[in-house]
Amino acid sequence: MTVFFYDNTFEGLLTAIFDAYSRKVFPDKLLKEGDVPPLFMEHSYTVTTQEDRATRVWKALDKKMSALARNMLTYAWLSEEEGSDDLIFRYIRKTLDSKIPIETNFGDSDVLEIHQMAKRVSHERHYLMMFVRFQKAADDIFFAPVSPRHNALPLAINHFKDRFSDQKWVIYDVKRHYGFYYDLHSVVEMTLDNDEHLLSGKLDEKLMAEDEKIFQELWKGYFNSMTIKERINLKLQRQHMPKRFWKYLTEKQ
Predict the structure, then answer these.
(1) Pick from 245, 153, 164: which is nearest to 191 by CA?
(2) Where are the beta strands (DSSP E) in the chain?
(3) Where is the DUF4130 domain (predicted)?
(4) 3-class SS at 112?
């Protein structure tokens, strides 16, 4: 078994593609640097990520794939599903080796799985756009904690920049410990030194603006008054609003 170790970045994966073709040796498995090697490993190679090599591979794919198919690759990468890097590697290799486009060859299990994986990430992006709820902090910055199943937050940020362009906000992924801050002009990636208190889905009341507390109580009261108890259908609610998002919704707290 031949194993390539890399830094677990998309650029590192593209560099691994470049190195495999240069060395004429293709890995049976991709592992992160520091991972325990498999018992039956015969050969290993450590990939050093190089931007110029990654760019050359991406430009080669630009000639072989549609923009939609390239987007699917990035979506599949953001899935973070087990084995997704091996799948993407195989898909890219098949694309580069084929004389005709493979992106609609759903008889190939790898092509089909890339499509399905990208669709799952796309669904998560839409869930974020629908279910993110901002809470106003004492410093007048609107804050929203999230923990999506896939790393879909970067795919949804432009939506929030366009939709809430008149207010400062932070959307923070508590599962991956990073987020984005919008200052009315640009969006920058950021991290917090301590984000454990955000796991509940709600800002600590000490950090919350006074009018936010009032608004949340009013919203809960409105939601309860509009609810027809005889027509409550929890199964239908979970179908359209996955329960894993409920802790971020004021009306569900």
Answers:
(1) 153
(2) 2-6, 29-32, 43-46, 135-136, 142-146, 169-173, 178-182, 187-190
(3) 84-251
(4) helix
Tokens standing for residue 107: 């008889």
- Tens-place pLDDT, residues 79-99: 999 999 999 999 999 999 999
* 247: exposed, middle or buried (Cβ count in 10 Å: 0-12, 13-18, 19+): middle
Is 7's pLDDT higher than 60?
yes
CA distances 76 to 3, 5, 169, Å, are: 21, 20, 28
Q: Are 76 and 84 in contact (CB under 8 A)?
A: yes
* Distance, C-alpha 244 to centroid of its chain: 16
Q: In Å, what is the CA distance from 179 to each residue of 66, 70, 87, 144, 236?
A: 30, 25, 27, 10, 31
Q: In the 8-state DSSP scheme, what is residue 180?
A: E
Three-class secondary structure of residue 133 per DSSP: coil
∠ CA 91-152-58, rounded to 5°: 35
